[in-house]
Specification:
This is C-type cytochrome. By secondary structure, the protein is mainly α. The protein has 11 helices and 4 strands; from the N terminus they run αββααααααααββαα. 27% of the residues lie in helices and 4% in strands. The two termini are 26 Å apart.
Length: 390
């Protein structure tokens, strides 16, 4: 262990102005093997398995953690660095902005070269718990998810060869990768691991709702409690898909969401061989920090939470195109919520906001490039940092 410390100290001295954190992010504990393990009050509770939608005090599903502090912090730099895009104009953080709930506030995200995508950017909060990633559930791991947009022509438009050459030729990144992976050669799996490590640290479990769930009932207003009760009721049935504590059951659901005017029908998960029954299906998104991530649905079809809630209340399949015969999820029916109930649900969803563990945006980047312009209009200073120095 002493030798490890000496080697680490030696590597830190070579970073020439950049050094990676030796401490885990807040809410993570450093354990044997230089691993960061998440600590949550939800760990005290029982599993949801075979218990319907469960109560407020229900255990979290299995999570991705165990990365080193150095890997997490390297991933933080990479996440914000436009060096990862083909033209050095766009970073991961361009579409997943901390100030906007790690989404981008757009109905459809745009690529490094200005191309308009066909889906919105989902929030990255609590992605370390998710089993399927992307709106269509095409990815099973954070590592795979990290590389797909980076190498997609209509997104970050990079290639493996260019990405690795740019990182290897940089004045700082080789030393930082040495700190995180003890290697002199940067490889694509290491880039993916570092980004996965950082994303696994994006944990949001300290909202006012969580305070209520842990026993402090004064944390929610009367209106929000009414909204929670409607949300969990057999009439609205929101919680059957948006199941606490993550507020997603992680399934693919066909709900018949309409596309924005002028956009063709999106088959979603149904394009995958063997998943034809899921035509028009998309992953049930988390509702954590949902008040920050408008517009809503896979294509940003609804501008407000009220509009999105009203969609579910208007009746099973009411917006499905006439030429589409979709197998709608059985939970989608016709609750006929009142305007008051829609307002109550919307109020409750606002209680799920928590960005207390937002990581610190780097003041400068190892590449020497400027932060993407999208990040120049942030919310007030973060209340928590990663502990890194730069």
């Amino acid at each position: 262990m002493m030798l490890y410390g000496l080697l680490l100290a030696a590597s830190l001295s070579t970073a020439d102005g950049f050094s990676l954190s030796q401490s885990c992010p807040p809410s993570f504990e450093l354990v044997a093997g230089n691993q960061c393990k998440l600590v949550s009050r939800y760990d005290m509770y029982d599993s949801l398995q075979n218990k319907g939608v469960g109560g407020t005090q229900t255990a979290l599903p299995e999570r991705r953690d165990g990365f080193s502090p150095q890997q997490i912090d390297l991933g933080r730099y990479l996440f914000f660095d436009p060096l990862l895009s083909g033209n050095h104009q766009q970073a991961c953080a361009s579409c997943h902005q901390p100030a906007r709930g790690f989404a981008d506030g757009k109905a459809l995200s745009s690529g490094a070269n200005g191309q308009l995508g066909n889906r919105s950017a989902p929030s990255l909060w609590n992605v370390g718990f998710l089993k399927k990633l992307f709106w269509d559930g095409r990815s099973d791991t954070l590592e795979q998810q990290a590389l797909i947009p980076m190498l997609a022509e209509h997104e970050m438009a990079n290639t493996p060869a260019k990405l690795l050459a740019d990182l290897q030729a940089n004045n700082h990144y080789p030393a930082l990768f040495r700190q995180a992976f003890n290697t002199d050669r940067i490889e694509l799996p290491q880039v993916a691991t570092a980004l996965a490590a950082f994303q696994s640290s994006l944990v949001s479990l300290n909202s006012r709702y969580d305070h209520y769930a842990h026993g402090y009932h004064q944390a929610l207003t009367e209106q929000e409690i009414k909204g929670m009760n409607v949300f969990r009721s057999f009439v609205a049935r929101c919680a059957e898909c948006h199941t606490p504590p993550l507020f997603t059951n992680q399934q693919i659901a066909v709900i018949g969401t309409p596309e924005p005017d002028g956009m063709p029908f999106d088959a979603g998960a149904g394009v995958k061989p063997g998943w034809e029954k899921l035509r028009g299906g998309f992953k049930v998104p988390t509702l954590r920090n949902i008040a920050l991530t408008a517009p809503y649905m896979h294509s940003g079809r609804f501008a407000t939470l009220g509009e999105a809630t009203e969609f579910y209340s208007k009746g099973r399949g009411h917006a499905v195109p006439a030429n589409e015969d979709l197998l709608l999820h059985w939970h989608i029916w016709e609750p006929k919520l009142t305007a008051e109930e829609v307002e109550q649900i919307t109020a409750f969803l606002g209680s799920l906001t928590d960005q207390s563990l937002t990581p610190q945006t780097p003041k400068r980047l190892p590449s020497g490039l400027a932060l993407p312009s999208e990040l120049h209009t942030e919310l007030p200073p973060n209340t928590a940092t990663s502990g890194a120095t730069e």
